[in-house]
Amino acid sequence: MPKLKVIVAEGFEDLTFKVSDEGGGMPASKVEKLWSYIHQKSMPQNDINDPSSDQIPTDSSIENSSMSSNFGNFDLNFGSNSDYPLFGFGVGLPTARLIARYFGGDLDVVSMEGYGSDFYLHLQRSGNIAETTPDLCDLSLQSASSSVSELIDSLKYE
C-alpha cells in the first residue's frame, strides 16, 4: 500500500489539508466521476494492490493493513460491511465535497496518472466570530402562537 503524506496549512482566512499518495494516480476520465453519485459501483470488489482497478477497495481487501504518516500508524481494519452499509459504494467523496461546500469550503483532487493523487480539503476559518443563527426558542414560540391564532380564527368563522 502506498504511503500517505498529510500536510496541514493554516492560513489567516482558511485551513487546508493536503493528502498525497504515490499510488499510481487516475486518468482524467475517472477523476470527474469521483464527484458523481451516478457513476458509483453497485458491488465493490477488487484488490487494493491493483492500480488499474476501477473500484474502491472493500474492507476485506485491506484487512490488517496499516498506513503510516507523520502522525503515526493507522489501522485500516474497518470492521464488517454491516458496520458501514455504504462502504465501497463511492458516496464518501461526493458527500464530503457537498458538506465542505455547504460550509464555505471545497474538496478538490489533482491526479497524475502513473504517479499519484493529491486531495485538498479547504475550510474557512471563522475564528472567534459567532455564527449568526436564529433563536430557536423564539421561533418555536412565534410559530406556536401563530398556529393557535390561526386555529382560533378558523373556528370563529365556521
From TrEMBL:
Residues 4-125 form the Histidine kinase/HSP90-like ATPase domain. Its EC number is 2.7.11.-. Gene3D superfamilies: Histidine kinase-like ATPase, C-terminal domain. GO terms for cellular component: mitochondrial matrix. The keyword Transit peptide does not apply. InterPro entries: BCKD/PDK, HATPase_C_sf, HATPase_dom, Sig_transdc_His_kin-like_C. GO terms for molecular function: ATP binding; pyruvate dehydrogenase (acetyl-transferring) kinase activity. Keywords: ATP-binding, Kinase, Mitochondrion, Nucleotide-binding, Pyruvate, Transferase. This is Protein-serine/threonine kinase. It comes from Smittium culicis. Coiled coil: none annotated. It is found in: Mitochondrion matrix. One of its GO terms (biological process) is regulation of glucose metabolic process. Residues 43-66 are annotated as: Disordered. Residues 43-59 have a biased composition (Polar residues). Belongs to the PDK/BCKDK protein kinase family.
